C-alpha cells in the first residue's frame, strides 16, 4: 500500500519560481501579513532562529490558489 509523500519545502525564490509569482507576492500572502497562507501548512521557518529563512509547501499553496480561484469565479458567474 502506498502512503502519502511528505511535503517538499522549498526556499522563497524556488517556491516563487515554481508558482510563477514574484517573491514579494508570495510573502504578502502569509497569514501574518493579512493573507491566507497558513504557518505550518503552507510555510514554515527552517530553524528556530529569528533570522531563519522561510520554507514553502508549493503543493499546498497551489491548492490554496485553486480554492480561492474557484470561489472568485463562482462570484463572477453569480453576478
Helix/strand layout:
Elements lengths: L8 E3 H8 L3 H6 L14 E3 L8 E4 H21 L1
Antiparallel strand pairs: 1-3, 2-3
Radius of gyration: 14 Å
Number of helices: 3
DSSP helix fraction: 40-55%
Q: What fraction of residues sit in β-strands?
A: 5-15%
Could you tell me the number of beta strands? 3
Q: Segments where pLDDT lies below 50 for 5+ residues?
A: none
Decide which structural class fits the backbone.
alpha+beta
Structure description:
With 79 residues, the chain is an alpha+beta fold. The protein has 3 helices and 3 strands; from the N terminus they run E-H-H-E-E-H. It has helices at residues 12-19, 23-28, 58-78, and strands at residues 9-11, 43-45, 54-57. Strands 1-3-2 form a 3-stranded antiparallel sheet. Strand 2 (43-45) and strand 3 form a beta hairpin. The longest helix is centred in the last third of the chain and has 21 residues, at 58-78. The chain starts with 8 loop residues before the first strand and ends with a helix.
Brief rundown of the structure:
With 79 residues, this protein is α+β, with helices and mostly antiparallel strands.
Properties at a glance:
three-stranded antiparallel β-sheet; alpha+beta; 44% helix; globular; 79 residues; 3 strands; 3 helices
Amino acid at each position: 500500500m502506498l502512503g502519502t509523500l511528505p511535503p517538499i519545502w522549498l526556499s522563497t525564490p524556488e517556491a516563487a519560481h515554481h508558482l510563477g509569482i514574484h517573491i514579494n507576492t508570495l510573502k504578502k500572502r502569509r497569514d501574518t501579513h493579512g493573507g491566507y497562507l497558513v504557518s505550518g501548512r503552507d510555510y514554515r521557518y527552517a530553524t528556530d532562529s529569528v533570522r531563519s529563512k522561510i520554507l514553502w509547501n508549493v503543493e499546498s499553496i497551489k491548492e490554496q490558489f485553486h480554492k480561492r480561484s474557484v470561489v472568485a469565479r463562482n462570484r463572477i458567474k453569480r453576478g
